[in-house]
Amino acid sequence: MHALSVRIVILRMSNMNYLIKSLCAGLMVVAASVWTAGADTIPDGVALVMAEEEGCIWCAAWNRDISPEYAITAEGRAAPLVRINIHKALPEGLKLESRLRFTPTFVLVRDGQEISRLEGYAGEDFFWGLLQRMLTNAGIDYNDPR
Q1: Rounded distance, CA 38 to CA 50, Å?
Q2: Are 85 and 107 in contact (CB under 8 A)?
Q3: Please, what are the domains in the chain?
Q4: What pLDDT, on the 0 to 100 scale, is given for residue 4?
Q5: DSSP characters for 103-145?
């Protein structure tokens, strides 16, 4: 095989890999936006409420970067995700310190009562560190296996 042929094959494989990743990310965002219809009630215990809206590019970035793995992380097990639409009525049992203004907004709650919040999404590295700080400050041991 000539060097040029090898380069073309590698280029096609890398383009295919990119295409597959892009397609999967797009499908996850669509699935997440379908699931965003909103919760009717807030579960007992600790939860992370994500307020989002259709067309939010930062929500889409979070859905691409974090959503696929969130539920299987220690943080996700300690504070399961509940999605709400910022433009709809608040779910029954959700008590916030102030109204939701930005998307995405992540509100850590215990038995429906706001403990702390994170407004916006600045990327995966910032999100995990800030969420861990929120959990630690609330006295929630997210490293405790369930």
Answers
A1: 10
A2: no
A3: 33-137 (3.40.30.10)
A4: 42
A5: SSEEEEEETTEEEEEEES---HHHHHHHHHHHHHHTT--TTS-
